[in-house]
Amino acid sequence: MIYIEKKEEEKLVELWEKAKKDWGITPDSLLELVKHGVVYCEDYCNSREVCGSGACFCIREIFPSRDCYEVYLFLRELHLEGVEKELFFRILKGKINERKK
Ligand SMILES: [Zn+2]
After folding, report:
1. Mind listing the pLDDT tens digit for each residue in 42-66?
2. Cα diameter, the chain
3. How far is the CA of 77 from the centre of ligand 1 (A)?
4. How many angstroms separate the alpha carbon of residue 100 from the centre of ligand 1?
5. Residue 92 in contact with residue 31, Cβ under 8 Å?
6. CA of 86 to the centre of ligand 1 (A)
7. What is residue 6's predicted lDDT score, i.e. its pLDDT?
8. How much is the pLDDT for 90?
9. Nearest Cα residue to 79 out of 32, 24, 29
10. What does the DSSP assignment read for 6-44?
11. Ligand 1: distance of its center to the CA of 57 in Å?
């Protein structure tokens, strides 16, 4: 179990949410995550208690920014609905370019 002080944790979440342009994840690895889904912390997670499951340590470890995580959620939903891989890539590229502007 990872324990981070509440104040410290809140600061980290804030930084994470502000890290708009910091993707640091390739479209390919994001696509892999989209295909297989993210494994959320199974046991008690202090971080989740403080930040909620959408921003806990485990999520922030995987996704460099909230932006990135939201794109993941969006694509994951499409994936579950059965959208084709090619279309994925197009949407993903669009999202990344959007943020580079
Ligand atoms: Zn967690």
Report:
1. 788 888 888 888 889 888 888 888 8
2. 43
3. 21
4. 29
5. yes
6. 31
7. 85
8. 75
9. 32
10. HHHHHHHHHHHHH-TT---S-HHHHHHHHHH------S-
11. 5
pLDDT, the chain, mean: 80
By residue count, the chain amounts to 101
CA–centroid distance, 46 to ligand 1, in Å, is 7
- Give the amino acid at 5: E
- Asked if the model's pLDDT at residue 19 lies above 80, the reply is no
Distance 56 CA to ligand 1 centre (A): 5
Q: Which two tokens stand for residue 87?
A: 């279309």
Distance CA 67, CA 11 (A): 17
Q: Domain locations in the chain?
A: 6-100
Condensed to tens digits (0 to 9), the pLDDT of residues 76-86 reads 888 888 777 67
- DSSP character for 55? T
Average pLDDT over residues 15-42: 81
